[in-house]
Design brief:
The protein is α/β, with parallel strands linked by helices and 406 residues long. The chain has two domains: 4-30 and 296-405, Alpha-Beta Complex (Aspartate Aminotransferase, domain 1); 39-294, 3-Layer(aba) Sandwich (Aspartate Aminotransferase, domain 2), CATH 3.40.640. It is 40% helix and 17% strand. It has a seven-stranded mixed sheet, with helices on both faces. Strands 13-14-17-16 form a four-stranded antiparallel sheet, covered by helices on one side. A two-stranded antiparallel ribbon has the order 1-2. Strand 1 (17-18) and strand 2 form a beta hairpin. The radius of gyration is 22 Å and the shape is globular. The mean pLDDT is 97.
Length: 406
């Protein structure tokens, strides 16, 4: 059973006030708040069990290693992956995608090879490919969504040619909330011998993900959006792709032997995890995933779908408000602009005075902003701890914005 009041009570920050008003936190698309169990787990590690992992034989190191490596199995279970050794720890999706760019793509892509991606991508799934364009002559092929923000898989697959080596695609747009049928794309790509990388930063937070069913070669997630600590994350890499990858970072843990004349590497996933890791961060992410799986991702998805539909119906009544993206089945993410001279930063500031936290800016989605014809919308992104009453508070604050700025 999904008990929203119990869930809200698990998040200490939701009890505070902003400018004398109850906090309405609608910026989870940027970073989610943390439940008490995550906060306690990180504190408990530092107070009682902290030591470096893997290389020690003493009690504290063994405890920390067990907790740290236990997160790998949790990530695999959360993503529906059978082999936990296909999970590589990262600091987040940005590092995960850069790992693929440097360790897998760079050694094998030639001038003229193509990467297909959508204009909805976050900069984290654009800039690493621009590196290959600048340095190796790789061609980026852009796919635009439909007018409502939908991205049919056929559109993506129509961009594929005999020069396509990779499809890099978001699972859910961080601006429009559009959900992409990455399963159809991944299966069709595999049949053509083309790799797929999926940015799962947004989608993995809002509903169940089954990577055995989806079939992508690479799938990256970010811990701080999953109610875990910042600096945590992971990427799932299919074993056959791991075998094709060279190391990205060099240092401790990723090696087997080092001499003056040679180096041999550890086996994956350790081969791609150099140096002392974010021990507390990854342990905290594991606790966050336990928390999510305890609630049930299907239950979270149903609650957020209700919030999406309720909020959308309320926003539709504001005829002076422009909402970007109305794709069917989208996530509970609403990017908005007001007509006239209203700047999104002004909107965000006025909302903040009412205790409503939203984000304003280009949302690390420059190509999408250009396609939309806007510079910087204000974005309200809902999470499992939000309520219909908070959607009402958003609408009320927007009405004040219209009075002051419209």
């Amino acid at each position: 059973m999904f008990d929203i009041e119990k869930i809200r009570a698990d998040f200490p920050i939701l009890q505070r006030q902003i400018n004398g008003k109850p906090l309405v936190y609608l910026d989870s698309g940027a970073s989610a708040q943390k439940p008490r169990v995550v906060i306690d787990a990180v504190r408990d590690l530092y107070e009682n069990d902290y030591a470096n992992v893997h290389r020690g034989l003493h009690t504290l190191s063994n405890i920390a290693t067990e907790k740290y490596e236990g997160t790998r199995a949790k990530v695999a279970r959360f993503l529906g992956v059978k082999d936990e050794e296909e999970i590589v720890f990262t600091t987040g999706t940005t590092e995960g995608i850069n790992l693929v760019s440097y360790a897998w793509a760079a050694p094998r892509f030639q001038p003229g090879d193509e990467i297909v991606l959508s204009v909805m991508e976050h900069h984290a799934n654009i800039v690493p490919w621009h590196f290959l364009r600048e340095r190796q002559g790789v061609v980026l092929k852009w796919v635009e969504p439909d007018v409502d923000g939908s991205l049919p898989p056929e559109k993506v697959l129509e961009a594929v040619t005999d020069k396509t080596r990779l499809i890099a695609i978001t699972h859910m747009s961080n601006v429009l909330g559009t959900k992409v049928d990455v399963r159809t794309i991944a299966h069709a790509a595999r049949a053509k011998g083309i790799a797929t990388l999926v940015d799962g930063s947004q989608a993995a937070v809002h509903g169940p993900v089954d990577l055995e069913e989806i079939g992508a070669d690479f799938y990256a997630i970010t811990g701080h959006k999953l109610y875990g600590p910042s600096g945590s994350g992971a990427i799932h890499i299919r074993r056959e792709r791991m075998a094709e990858m060279r190391p990205f970072l060099g240092g401790g843990d990723m090696i087997d032997t080092v001499t003056r004349d040679a180096v041999t590497y550890n086996k994956p996933p350790m081969k791609f995890e150099a140096g002392t890791p974010g021990i507390a961060q990854q342990i905290g992410m594991g606790v966050a995933l336990d928390y999510l799986m305890g609630i049930g991702m299907d239950n979270i998805a149903a609650h957020e779908a209700d919030l999406r539909d309720y909020t959308a119906s309320k926003l539709q009544g504001l005829n002076w408000l422009n909402v970007q993206g109305t794709a069917p089945g989208k996530g509970a993410i609403f990017s908005m602009t007001l007509g006239g001279p209203a700047h999104p930063h002004d909107i965000s500031t006025i909302l903040d005075k009412r205790g409503v936290a939203v984000r304003a800016g280009h949302h690390c989605a420059g190509p999408l902003m250009e396609w939309l014809g806007v510079s910087a919308p204000a974005r309200a992104s809902f999470a499992m701890y939000n309520t219909r009453a908070e959607a009402d508070a958003l609408v009320s604050a927007l009405e004040l914005c219209n009075e002051l700025l419209g």
